[in-house]
Amino acid sequence: MKIGVTSRIVLAVAFxxxxxxxxxxxxxxxxxxxxxxxxxxxxxxIENLRASGEQELxxxxxxxxxxxxxxxxxxxxxxxxxxxxxxxxxxxxxPPFDDLIPNITGFYEAKMALHQRLIEISKAFVAGxxxxxxxxxxxxxxxxxxxxxxxxxxxxFESTPLIFATLIDPKEDSKHHTNHLIITKxxxxxxxxDITTDFGAKLERKDQNxxxxxAKALKDYLxxxxxxxxxxxxxx
Length: 236
Description:
The structure is a single chain. The protein is mainly alpha-helical and 236 residues long. The protein contains 8 helices and no strands.
């Protein structure tokens, strides 16, 4: 039986529609500006929680008082990281940046697992002596967890150039240089202002942690005069 052109078109559209329903339509790309704005917010949120927990620890007079603070801080960290993971999983970047968000969320998930383990260890100490529990072994696990957390933060810090690269316009100038950003001068100034406002004087400290260092590196990239904004004229 022959099928007319109109019938074939109808069948093709029907198949495409049913396929999209079954397999899910391809996720549209998130604005790169939206992604970087969110990432800056996430850095600031994590640093604020870390600093708050540090201030609480400075006020204690007995070492055993540190465990409830650890539970409180790590719980807040886990909740914040979970929120950040959900936010990022709603986003999507096309190649060559398609692995960037999954890699970041993977790091966040690993950090959550470490904070959950700190909560478990701290709860064991708060509960008091219990037969069969090796408290020395638990205490020795804490610096190992901190080292793993630092390693993840370092990996996130080392991702900063790639995060900034999402803002670089791939279009080349007449000399085959990619020296323009995809954001306007106003949008660029807003990102710089967000970092400055969120981190303040911490950006100038010499003993920066990796989270502050990532924010500082991102700000430095945005301030580079080597890159023009999208509304700057294209030079020869």
